[in-house]
């Protein structure tokens, strides 16, 4: 049986979205990949990651970051 939500209850989906953003900054992207900003810019220049520009902000898609890491993993598996 559904019960009415109280005003101070946090919606589970909302809290998950806040803890797992769709877009992250350059600094956060470098941190997630455990690389420096310069290396990140080299990856962008090579075309492996595409920055998203929102006004003056530069962001990266967590989906694309995950896909990039998975492609690296697949490449290493083939080489072995």
What does this structure look like?
This protein is α+β, with helices and mostly antiparallel strands and 80 residues long. It has one domain. The chain is built from four helices and three strands; from the N terminus they run H-E-H-H-E-E-H. Strands 1-3-2 form a three-stranded antiparallel sheet. Strand 2 and strand 3 form a beta hairpin. The longest helix has 18 residues, at 62-79. It is globular and about 40 Å long. The model has no long low-confidence stretch (mean pLDDT 85).
Task: Itemize the secondary structure elements and their pairings.
Elements: H1 12-19, E1 23-25, H2 26-33, H3 37-46, E2 52-54, E3 57-61, H4 62-79
Antiparallel strand pairs: 1-3, 2-3
Could you list some keywords that capture this structure?
80 residues, alpha+beta, 3-stranded antiparallel beta sheet, 4 helices, 3 strands, 14% strand
Quick overview of this protein structure:
It contains 4 helices and 3 strands; from the N terminus they run H-E-H-H-E-E-H. The chain is α+β, with helices and mostly antiparallel strands and 80 residues long.
